[in-house]
Structures are given as C-alpha cells and as structure tokens.
Known about the structure:
The chain is mainly beta and 308 residues long. It has 2 helices and 23 strands. Strands 12, 13, 14, 17, 18, 19, 22 and 23 form an 8-stranded antiparallel beta sheet that branches. Strands 4-5-6-11-8-9 form a 6-stranded antiparallel beta sheet, with no helix packed on it. The longest helix has 7 residues. The chain is globular.
Amino acid sequence: xxxxxxxRTSAGSSDDAGIFGLEPHFGCCTANLHQGWPKFVSHLxxxxxxxxxxxxxxxxxxxxxxxxxxxxIVVDTEYPFDETVRIRVAxxxxxxxxxxxxxxxxxxxxxxxxxxxxxxxxxxxxxAGLPVVDGYVTLERDWSATGDVVLVxxxxxxxxxxxxxxxxxxxxxxxxxxxxxxxxxxHDGAPGxxxxxxxxxxxxxxxxxxxxxxxxxxxxxxxxxxxxWSLEDRRRxxxxxxxxxxxxxxxxxxxxxxxxxxxxxxxxxxxxxxxxLVPYGSARLRVTEFPVIGNWxxxxxxxxxxxx
Length: 308
C-alpha cells in the first residue's frame, strides 16, 4: 500500500517511495506527466508516401494534405473502452489515395465497413479479404464521395502468464486490474508539498479462477466520463470485466505492503465471487497480477501482443 509505516523489505526502493505526492523523490515525474497527452494526440496519424496512416485510435480531428489536396478526418470513438471506431474523411480530391488502419493482433475477427458495405479482412498471408500487413489493412480509393469507415475491434479477455505462475489480464489494449478502493490520509509533518498515504478500503488478496474460459468473461460498459481514468465508483468505470475468483487466504500483508503473491495454483481459498476488474489507469491501488486457482495445464500461453 502507499504508506511508509515500516521498512519495505520486498522493494528495491526507499521506505517512502510509495508515498503519493511531489516529494520526497522525483517531483519532475508528476510535474511533467501532462506532456504525454499532447504528444499522444500529435502522433495519432502519420503521412505515408501514398496517403495517411492511423497509429492509435482516439477521439480526434485532423486537417492535413495529400499531394497538396486538403483532407479532413474526424475519428468518433470511445476506444479503448469501446470496440467501435468510426472515421469520416472529407476531401474534394478525386484521385485515390491510401488510408491505412491499424488492426491489433489481439483483435481476432475484426470487422470493417466502408460506406455501409462490408470489406473482408484476411489473416496475414491469407488470400481472402484485404491482407493485414505489419498490423495494418490498406484502403485505397477515391474518398471524395465515400461514406464512413467503421472498424470494429472485438475485445475479449485474455490471460497472460507471469512470474510464479500468476496471471495478468488484458481486454483489448487495456490491462485490467482489481481495485480494493482507496482511502487517502494526509501524511503528518510532510515538508513542503503535502504527501499522502493511500490505504485499501476492502480486501485485495484475490485469485482468479477458470482462466481457460477468459474469452467468455462478461464485459459491461458505461458512459465515459469527462475524466475517463477517474474511479470515484468502482462499479461505474467506463468498462468493467467480470472475472471469476476467490480470496487467496494465504496471501497476506508483509508489514504495510502486500507480501509476494503465493505460487499458483493456490489450494487454500475462499468461496467463489465476481471480481470487477477495471482499467489499470483508473486505480492508484491495484492488483495487476493474480494467483490462479486450479492448474495452468492446457491453457494457451500466447506471446504478449505488441500491437495496441
């Protein structure tokens, strides 16, 4: 937890490294954190020699040129919390040019329509449908009178094996975690800018069950708030993954922090429960790697996708 009440024996940093605040360590990290968003936005799209390429999906609008012809693009989406990306291209240019759309490797069964007409997407190297080459599918046409481009990227839960046979959970491009809730306590006597200890409101020592069936775990979605990574209510995150699990009763605290997770499979556990997993960025206190109830045997262990 984010406290400094005891010595941190299991971390390679000082006892107060878990404190939330600008001090006593690297205030520049917090002060410069905002730079990530404008840099992200400015690199969503790139210009190719024969057209344009989308690197990452986010609500956005661009005004650019292709061979000196004006082109405007509007991306309407709630990705990464939702599966659908709608792209509107506006231009008076009638000469065809390429539009390359990223299809992440986890998006098995991706669907694409252009102007309401389905466009088949083939597997890499397949003969049927537009091929996915280096993670991109290429649409080349006259965009002056073309309707919306709609890309659906199916997001199914998948489990990645980690150290000590633990499991990490992905949903599309998101890493999903368990949040035990947060109780913020101002640290007394903190010099300069305030420091905060953050304590868990509820139980955190959970293990996952039925990881072989992760693709079928239930997903619920809600409205994306103005601050999409806030988590005022764990039940109202923009996307929640419902995973089966139970308390790993042998996994306990070591002083003021969680002890190293037990090796999987865990045999001593509580009754089955519904774990509500939320996006990693939504929680300051979180469980990211879980012990597993049962056995990893017969579970596929694919390489971690590199395309987001």
